[in-house]
Amino acid sequence: MNRKMLILALTLLGFFISVGFKKSEATIALENVTKQFHQEMENMASAALRLRQVAEQLDGSTAKTLALQDAVAQVRLTFKKGEFLYAYLDPQFVRKSLNGAPLPSLVPNVPSIIVIEPSGLQVLDELAFGENPNESKAEIVKLAEKFERDFQELHDFQKTNKLTHRHVFEAIQQQLIRSFTLGVTGFDTPGSANAIPEAKAAFEGMYAAFKNYMPLLEEKDRGLAIVMDARMENTLQYLTENDEFESFDRLGFLMKHIEPQYQLFFEIHKALGIEFAEETDKSPRAVNSHATGLFDPNFLNAGYFANIDLKEPLFEKRKELGRTLFFDPILSKNIQRSCASCHQPEKAFTDGKPKSLASDGKGTVQRNSPTLLNAVYADQYFWDLREPRLDRQMMHVVMSKEEFGTTYVEIIDKLKQSEAYRQLFAEAYPDQPQYQLSTYTISDALSAYVASLTSLDSPFDRYVRGEIGQLDPAVKRGFNLFMGKAACGTCHFAPVFNGTVPPTYDDSESEVLGITATADTLHPVLDTDLGRFANGMPSNNADFMKTSFKTVTVRNVELTAPYMHNGAFKTLEEVVDFYNRGGGKGLKLDVPHQTLPFDELKLTRAEQNDLVAFMKSLTGDVSKFEAPTSLPVFKNNPTWNERKVGGNY
Amino acid sequence: MTKKIYLLFALAILCASANTQTLFDEEIHMPAGYAPTTIVMPPSPLTTQVLFVGGTDMVQTTATYGNPAGEQVAKEWHDFIGMTPDPSGQSIGWVSVNHEMIYSDDKLGDGGGMTAFRIARKADGSLEILDQNLNDGRTGKFFNVDFVNTVGETGMNCGGICSIVDGRIWTAEEWFASSNAAMYGGGGGVRDTSDFTITNSDIPGWNGTTLKKYQNFNYMVEIDPKQARAIRKQYNWARQPFEGGAVEPGNRIVYLGPDDTPGFFGMFVANTPGDFTKGTLFAYKHDKPGWKWVPIWEDGSMLDHKAFADQKGATMFNRIEWVAIDPKDNFIYFTETGLDSPSAAWSDDYAAGGVFHPATMARAQAQGLANPTDPNYHDYYGRVWKYNPMTSELTVLLEGGPDFDVSPDEANYPDKALSNPDGLTVVQIDGHSFLMIQEDLNGSSKGRVPAGVTNRTCEVYLLDLSIQNPTLDDLIRLTAVPAGAEVTGGIQTSDKKSILLNVQHPNTTNPFPFNHSLTIAINGLDQVSYDNLGNRSAELFPAAENKDENAAFSVYPNPTTRTVYLNKTTDVAIYDANGKRVMVKRETNEVDVSGLSIGTYFIQNADGETLKLSIQ
User: Fold this and answer.
1) Hey, is the C-beta of B441 within 8 angstroms of any chain A C-beta?
2) Could you say which of B185, B404, B513 has the minimum Cβ distance to residue A156?
3) Residue A16 is nearest to which of B17, B103, B575, comparing CB atoms?
4) Could you report the per-residue pLDDT of B250-306, keeping only the tens digit for each?
């Protein structure tokens, strides 16, 4: 090492000290978190044992039924105290065995269809708080036994697994997301509606863990410590005083508790010098570790979903090339249709038709054109979720006879004839001489463009972020209904309000709603589209996937009528009415696997209007998405130069 | 110095490694001083090369469904790789790649498929893809294997068999559709659902037989990689969701692995060596006295193999994947990848007569259960089995895990975890046999990925087959692969100088082509020596082996390109030249720095010792 280097290194040492830990205090904090965690698991094991014993004593008497309900509630509250760590450390196990949705699922990654029947606390909540728990005694006992055993398994595993500081802070961050999106919405308390006291237990649990870091934080940043201390007290008090499910002010909770604390915990994570996820491994993650809140426009990482590095210096060029391709009918067989034929920017990238026009100009394609705004935030694409990769999404359009009706080979042949296009591809993909104009570059450029079609600047976003001070009271009421009584937010998850599941946002859900063929709810007829069941993926060929469709975003719905995969509903009022009646099953249609609650929501006319007002407050600025003014020239094929931006129809 | 690490570097190009260690004792804290070392690393003898990019490279197609022969974009989701040597010596031979992905295509054919190409070694040690003229008139580099006009479509081509005798190739169809509607898949699967009449199979009793279309899937299908066409579906090996197999050197016996619960370890014995159209199918039955195989030859058993195997009391396995043979002693190895909760899948078969191997029974009993049909029976990690062809004994070579049910104390906690082994081949390095084990995780729970990593992270290991009673610690970790990806198909080229590998459906922001399904080669394997592979850590860092806590912190190699090794297990942080912390690893003795850009960094351990680190 030369002298200059030595001096530089010595200078850096000072910096290292400032971000490093004071060893003993950090270690003590983590040891205490670990001790508490182990104690929580012991408590949980006792609660699970008691639940089983109480379940075994069910005899039809009111006393025993109440005892059961109390035991379920206690188990759930105990679970909530440690949930932030259980769910962070083994998310898949918790979802599958301990507190997953009360719906059947499939064993992943096996060649055959193997259905996993639901078990865990949500099913128990549903049964124990159902009409007559004693009738389900055998099932409840079985579920309680299974829960006890499954928890034991988690316990055995986790008691030897060592925590790190990063785990603790990431677990807290996830719990903030979880408590808001899945907790206070009633997502995981389908029977008891005990959501708010449970949220309080979850906060108590994670605060108790975090408080071990307070001495360290006081040393590092006293101001942060003081603020956080006050915040914690304030939140617990708020949840104590406002524990009623229907009247709970979700918007106030979001803005006064969730968002500020999300930011504070991020600042604390940073101030303590704890590593962030990207410093430990390169696996891309859906949630940006440096986001400051759920409604931070950078909360989700579009690059993760699109498999694109948004920091790549060539991204802008690729996105621009993608925009050109998007509006260029040269991609279609007859050179008259482009992506924009069915995805028009001014309609939030939809086309206003129940089902899009087919390439013959007469018929229609199979389904309604979904918005592309925020479409990137999904694990699988299309109404029937048939494509897990955004860059491969285009292939389906290229090959479909009703759409582009062509092949990549033909598209590449055409594009190669334009010197202008060759130039654009060379500039965007100089690192890939061998594949400069290929399926890869074409679909990557289009993916880059679609990844850029994010719209998180609606009046509602801006209000939550504090960029505007006023919001129509109807919108506020509507949001609280959406996230509470109307149960919209339990499938259309915040902040994109689509089916991408928090807190890790790495899975896209679909739902069976029993959608009707038309909006006529007096003479309802079921739509016959099998949806996900028939999407061509052998792993989706399970009965309960029949007529299951992707949960699409509610953002910009004001611009995207008509609604549903078949465009059956012309207005948002009709949509809300359909849900209010309990979907297809609520209309007395035969929908054996409906996942939408089929009880009436009992929304008043005014409440329905508030919901619509909220949805309309999610409209972003679409004027910023513009078509290019001209398309690349084909010198040797003048007739192609007459093609229109966006295509003819 | 060791060359083993070069292999690591080369393979690490596939992706970032996700560290599996989360244990630690000490915090990163301030340095008391530092002692920089600079050791110059000699250039690596191994290089990687991308051969074939799925969904991007063009393949030559035959006239299909009334469309003329032409060109189309290849299918994706590469899985098995076949390597057929060129006896003429004019090239290394023919490579055939499975596409597990299913979709309908007017030119390639509906369902799954394969792509074949011919490779030769260039003077610089790299491979080239040769131009070919096939008998059917197709010319080019990559060829779509024609299934449509030969044997009916194919589907979900996952594993396969590459004969060690002559490089004959079978592709395994794992598409267990139980109806035409399921196979049709709303038009996305196989669109032609009319009955299929078998012609030219040469299998006695099968020509002229008409099957429901879905019944024409789930076979081992022999292909001709030189002419890029399918030859026959092996109806006489029964309809099973096949994954792997191996041909023994006498060219008479084929071992078969079906990916099913229960899956029955199978053996087909040909009447005449090399003619697999006539012979007898057996299923393994561990409790049969003497030779532990029972014949399955009853009428109807080929289409309903499971029922007949149950009836014969054959031994049930929980998803058999790849089958490999060690050419040095003809021992057979296969992976049983596991299924978290197999109870519902094999309880009926157990009632119908299927039996459990004592090792499987013992696992259930260790879990406090009577047998593996108990709903609480779990098989999270899978294992590798070893079959002795002389005695017909089957034993577990290596259990996956570690299984935390037994709650090991920290001191005994293994450094390596093996979960859901899938791909399996024998590779020869410096004349020694190694199993190359490729994971394909069934889930992320129960420690199969580290806490705080939400994605599946699959790894590739080497295991020295000369080790008696190997443990997880004997595994040599080659690499971890990108989120969502599966590394599979690993096979050695017939000149032993390269390993071919497939990366399947990676979900990552890696630059193209490392975000696509692709076939890559690792060249220069002939320059790696066994001694170094076998004694890596001892040779590198005797101090670390002795757990000498007083040794000064040192790292190797430095400068580095991919991985830097530490002389003791510790927490480390890497800082860039501006003092910004860019990477933290806890309780580790190696750090993959491939994600960092070239430049000068500082690496600091838990005791605060800091070294300059140069990344090239």
Assistant:
1) yes
2) B404
3) B575
4) 999 999 999 999 999 999 999 999 999 999 999 999 999 999 999 999 999 999 999
Most confident of A412-426, A524-538, B482-496: A412-426
Residue B606 pLDDT level (bands cut at 50, 70, 90): confident
Nearest to B407 by CA among A154, A96, A27: A154
State whether A282 and B344 contact (CB < 8 Å). Answer: no
A157·B185 Cβ contact <8 A = no
First CA to last CA distance, chain A:
68
Query: Which residue from A114, A279, A282 is facing B584, i.e. has the nearest CB?
Result: A279
**pLDDT tens for each residue of B542-581:** 334 444 556 788 887 788 766 788 887 778 889 988 888 8
Q: Is B432 helix (H, G, I), strand (E, B) or coil?
A: strand
Strand partners, B521: B49, B500
* CB contact (8 A) between residue B584 and residue A280: yes
Predicted TM-score (pTM) of the model is 0.90
Q: Are B237 and B173 in contact (CB under 8 A)?
A: no
Q: Which residue has the higher pLDDT, A254 or B184?
A: A254
Instruction: Determine contact, residues B78/B517, Cβ cutoff 8 Å.
Output: yes
**B residues 38..97 contacting A (CB < 8 A):** 38, 53, 55-56, 58, 70-73, 76
Cβ neighbourhood burial of B131 (10 Å; 0-12, 13-18, 19+): exposed
Lowest mean pLDDT among A90-99, A102-111, A493-502, A569-578: A102-111
Residues of B in contact with A220 (CB under 8 A): none
- B239 touches A: beta carbon within 8 Å: no
Chain B environment of A162 (Cβ under 8 Å) = 22-24, 410
Paired tokens of B41: 């690393």
Burial B351-372 (b: 16+ CB within 10 A, else e): eeebbbbeebeebbeebebeeb
Domains of chain A, CATH where assigned:
23-283 (1.20.1420.20), 304-453 (1.10.760.10), 459-620 (1.10.760.10)
- Tell me if B56 and A439 make a contact (CB, 8 A cut-off): yes
Q: Alpha-carbon distance A455 to A470, whole Å?
A: 20
Instruction: Please give the helix or strand (H or E) that residue A56 lies within, else none.
Output: helix A23-56
Contacts A399 to B, Cβ<8 Å: 105
Interface of B with A in 188-227 (CB under 8 A): 188-189
* Paired residues of B590 in beta bridges: B565
Residue A15 pLDDT > 80: no
Tokens linked to B452: 């705080």
User: What is this model's ipTM?
Assistant: 0.89
Considering only CB atoms, which chain A residues are within 8 Å of B30? Answer: 13, 16-17, 20
Q: Which of A160-169, B149-158, B591-600 has the lowest mean pLDDT?
A: B591-600
Output the average pLDDT for chain A.
Answer: 93
Residue A10: pLDDT above 50? no
Domains of chain B: 4-44+537-615 (2.60.40), 51-250+481-527 (no CATH)
pLDDT tens readout for residues B291-347: 999 999 999 999 999 999 999 999 999 999 999 999 999 999 999 999 999 999 999
Residue of B nearest to A390 (CA): B507
| Spatial distance between the Cα atoms of B189 and B211, rounded to a whole number of angstroms | 18
